[in-house]
Batch of 3 targets.
Target 1
Amino acid sequence: MKKPLSSSDRIAQYLFIAPMVAFLLFMVAYPIFYILRIGFYEYSLSISRDMDWVGLENYSYALTDKSFWMAGWRTLVFAFWAVLIETFLGVALALFIGNRDFLGRNVVKTGFLMPLVATPVAVALTWKLLYDNNFGIINHLLRKIGLSYPAVSSVDTVLSAYIIIDIWQWTPFVMLMVIAGLSTLPAECYEAAMIDGASRFQILRRVTLPLLSPTIMMTLALRIVDALKVFDVIYAITGGGPGTSAETINIFLYKEAFTNFRFGRASAYIIIFCLLIMVVVFGFSWLQKRVEVDY
């Protein structure tokens, strides 16, 4: 029978975790509480330093602000297409690389990691040069076949240009996650399928993809949440322009808080945005439980 802890031992346990609890309260809980609080105030440094209680006025304004919802719509469009294509390409690359043992396999996997380890500003500056209408290699090659791609300089193509950057940067992440999932799949399932005479396509469709579905769903959830928070690359290249054609929700919030100095209204926007992300996370958690496979 386990000996019960003495009161001094219990106090010692709490003292050991006290610094981490204090750190979390200061760095996480306090900012959340502060944002919730000032969301009920008119707090604009461009007018006054005083905080005036306005109740739910900031939230009612946010729910009827077309600029906020347009920024949200652009963010959803960006996240949907970027994550969809990244998932398709990442799974395809993982199936191609993960199931083959060839010379230089590890070198190839390491090469795919390069976009992930690059800093966002470095990625932004690199693609800004690639997209340049006068000196960029992309338009230089396209002009040779009579085409052009204005990329970030046109309202019609700017969002697609950022989707391409996100696909280039984050497809390797999906690939590595799926490769890790492939390494955990039981060989018995494949042996049974081959004994039954299943073709490669049937094994892929009936065995591999169903067994990988929890891994794919978890990767999807991580990528969607991250894509909804996109900010740095877009801000570093055009700041959300031309105009507001690439102004995602985080750029909109940044401008509202640190350009217009309307902190109360920005806090209300942030709370609504966080609630939407929580809905997405809980939705994917529910879907992940539905697609779990026992083997």
Target 2
Amino acid sequence: MTSTKYFFILICLSSFFAKVELFASSSYFTSQLGKSVDVRKVFEDEEGRASDLNSLISKKPTLLAFVYYSCPNSCELLLRGLALSLSRIDRLMGDKYNVIVLSIDPLDKASLAAERKSEFLRSYQAGFKRQPRADGVHFLVGGGASLLGVTQSVGLKVIRDEKTGEYAHPGVLAFISPDGRITNYLFGLNFSVADLDKGLDGAAQGKISALIKKFIVVCAHYLPLEAVQSQKMMGIIRYSSVLFLMIMGATLYLYSKKGRPV
């Protein structure tokens, strides 16, 4: 077998294991592209005012993000990364589009939402040097049927660890059209200007698009008990794949040093 063939096999194996990781994480998310967000649900904003999502979207393309404000893990990174990337987009936040950040923790309070909003706006202004419209950026809290209705309509699954009070959830943005439909998703913690522009353009036009990025990053310090076995299996698969690739690499190296045909 030639070294080219070996290389091709290694690439295929790497792609396979990347897909295994994707499918393992997808238990936290089910795409609802083209469907409507439950915009009738009422939440409390950072100033303690009650508002439904429909009035907050206010006929503009909207970015809907899910975090929790006391998160000790990646939620802060998601918000900071989002603010910095949005600051580099030509369109002004609150003018051409809205941003809604919804806490998945029903115990979060409006006062904490206000702190996170202030941090978000500072990060945004540090890059854009312009003042966004305050009525276009909303940090919400709420629980019960309202929270469950929205997370389910977006396809988000949240798992709470009862011992620590922390949540496992995907890092995801949903692009919402002016009429409340989900037009796209964006996953991760850092977002490119091109991806955000593409998503906002699609939302403004009401155009349902293929997922911009499909790799799901899960924010979780502690994985709940029901996820432990699958995570152990994923660990075995990862380590086995690395060991296999190392052995294959060493074999190729030894053959090449001896000058034998491979």
Target 3
Amino acid sequence: MTAGAFRIRSRRDAAARALFVFLLVLGFGFLFCKFTNARSRQLPGSRAVALFRIGEQLRYRVDWQRYTGAAYAELDVVDRGSFFGAEAWHFRASVHTAEPARALFPVDDEADSYARLSGLASFRYREHFDEAGKPEDTYAELISSGDSSGAPWTRIIVPEDTHDPVSAVYALRQMDWPHISEARIPLYDGEDLYEMVAQNSGAEEISVEAGQYSATKIVIRLLENGREVPDEHFTLWLAKDAVETPVRMDAQLPLGNLRVELTSAEQAENKRSEWPVTLPRRSSLPAGN
């Protein structure tokens, strides 16, 4: 990205960046639709009816290298309704490091995703990073080239039907994995644009803190300008339950190996939670590489 881009940093500079590229990733990435166009498209191979509900809270333990419980992460379905003039899901991901790893990487990060009901393409994405006591907030409106908007968020120009890392996790859960072998999803990670390639690697029995699961193993690669991103490999296990719960996620990254393991899952209705928004000046920027 250029010096004027809305977020300037190397995504390999911090463990938190890797977690969001992964989790929170998944690149784990991911497909954006036009904010001003009311139509939305369903991803090929995805289910038409959402598997998740308002109030779902998935909590994870993050192991990094020799540190068990180096961090804790959470995925939340915050709400479903009208946001910024569009019917959408509101998803949230958060990561907080714990001692002793926190002494090396003090991280308290959150990301909010607003995704279309059908296909879960993102049109607003917000990050709150607090790393080493230095808070930073970014606000992105994801639009296609040639679109316009009066919203005072930073406009990021991406291909139609792009996902952010958070909405991508839910999009993968929507896939009809028993009947497809591969899914390709454009992904904007808050900084750069990728193509996420998710491949069905068959069924496995998985044991995590939350219990024993029969799961579908999904191997994920990230492509940047048609070339695979080196030294970054991801694997996701989705439980074969009614809501395709992500029960384990592994990542091999330059900063070391991560294992993200489900510790608890709640499906109860949750209180609605919105951050106060301080709107930044608006600019239009292409997703950089």
